[in-house]
């Protein structure tokens, strides 16, 4: 069963709230070593969740520049974290690390060698909490209340009751026991120079000086918007604003969806070349607009500073929206995570082409006649 929600006018966040305003009233609870405190961030989720948590590492580095910062993560997210300027080590939790005593012992040895003083469970799940425990850190910061699941509530020994709902904001609240209040939200997403040069060369192959990326793919079918609607949006962007749209893709199904966008775009969209995560990030960074469902590339767009429009159906932008940017949701697939994952994309289909075009209008892009006059 879906419920209808009002389409946001200028993003999903309440502009009157400072995401860390209330944390200033919380006194530090942890005395850190005077020299080089050592931290473990435990966020084992997929690419999008890892990106949304990046500001935690950035805030630690800003406020404690001499600190050692490690991040425990699943293999899929390694490419977005390695070479991050705020992260000293990326600890890969191999698939099945919880499956047997031997694998659990190997994970414990891997984490314990880090000799961390503080472990921060940014996920609030059993596995992420266990990674904190296995590290041997004396101080294990975690959530209290509804943001915690399973054994996490017993493993953490420093608890923070989050005030805010968005994943990034509530993750930053976990730093309040360290005396870090109202940190600047930044991502510092790492993109290698060769990937940036490739993206620049690729962009220069188009005669248009305005590029939009359209991302139809998603792991969940319930997160996918119809490719023909993306195609209509590409037509609108081309006619009204002089944009060339590029349909990006990451696997075989995504390729088919992206190809359908091109076929229905009336000549206003092209198919992107195959890219890895580094080259995709560089391509997003070099573009002027990204329209995507709730997937890793959407949050990548926020992290590299590209204007984005997020399309939501099976998830809610108040929880995992494009931070500080525009999100559209007309209906929501209620139910458990498994139910929402296996649902149809009816909630996504409630978003019309006109909804997206109105969101584009709110961005005050220069119209095509203004571009031609310039």
From TrEMBL:
Keywords carried by this UniProt record: Glycosyltransferase, Transferase
Q: Which InterPro entries match?
A: Glyco_trans_9, LPS_LOS_Heptosyltrfase
Top-level lineage group: Bacteria
| Pfam families, per database record | Glyco_transf_9
Q: Which CDD domains match?
A: GT9_LPS_heptosyltransferase
* An example molecular function term from Gene Ontology annotations: ADP-heptose-lipopolysaccharide heptosyltransferase activity
Q: What is this protein called?
A: Lipopolysaccharide core heptosyltransferase RfaQ
Instruction: Tell me which species this is from.
Output: Stieleria bergensis
Report the gene name: rfaQ
């Amino acid at each position: 069963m879906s419920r209808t929600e009002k389409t946001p006018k200028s993003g999903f966040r309440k502009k009157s709230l400072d995401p860390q305003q209330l944390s200033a009233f919380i006194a530090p609870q942890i005395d850190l070593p005077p020299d080089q405190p050592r931290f473990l961030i435990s966020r084992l989720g997929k690419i999008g969740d890892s990106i949304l948590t990046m500001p935690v590492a950035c805030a630690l580095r800003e406020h404690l520049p001499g600190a050692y910062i490690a991040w425990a993560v699943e293999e899929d997210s390694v490419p977005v974290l390695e070479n991050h300027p705020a992260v000293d080590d990326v600890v890969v939790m191999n698939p099945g690390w919880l499956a047997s005593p031997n694998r659990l012992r190997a994970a414990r040895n891997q984490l314990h060698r880090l000799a961390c003083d503080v472990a921060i469970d940014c996920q609030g799940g059993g596995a992420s909490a266990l990674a904190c425990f296995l590290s041997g850190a004396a101080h294990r910061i975690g959530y209290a209340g509804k943001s915690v699941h399973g054994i996490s509530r017993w493993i953490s020994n420093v608890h923070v009751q989050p005030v805010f709902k968005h994943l990034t904001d509530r993750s930053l609240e976990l730093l309040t026991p360290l005396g870090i209040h109202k940190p600047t939200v930044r991502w510092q997403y790492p993109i290698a120079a060769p990937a940036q040069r490739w993206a620049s060369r690729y962009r220069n192959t188009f005669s248009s000086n305005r590029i939009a990326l359209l991302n139809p793919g998603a792991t969940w079918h319930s997160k996918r918007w119809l490719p023909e609607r993306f195609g209509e949006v590409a037509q609108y962007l081309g006619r009204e604003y002089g944009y060339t749209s590029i349909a990006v893709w990451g696997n075989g199904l995504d390729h088919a969806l992206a190809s359908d966008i091109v076929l229905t775009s009336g000549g206003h969209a092209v198919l992107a070349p195959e890219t890895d995560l580094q080259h995709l990030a560089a391509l997003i960074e070099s573009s002027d607009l990204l329209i995507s469902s709730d997937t890793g590339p959407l949050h990548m767009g926020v992290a590299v500073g590209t204007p984005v429009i997020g399309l939501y159906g099976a998830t809610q932008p108040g929880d995992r929206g494009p931070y500080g940017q525009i999100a559209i949701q007309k209906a929501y697939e209620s139910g458990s995570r498994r139910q929402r994952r296996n649902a149809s994309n009816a909630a996504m289909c409630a978003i019309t082409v006109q909804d997206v075009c109105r969101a584009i209008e709110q961005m005050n892009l220069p119209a095509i006649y203004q571009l031609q006059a310039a």
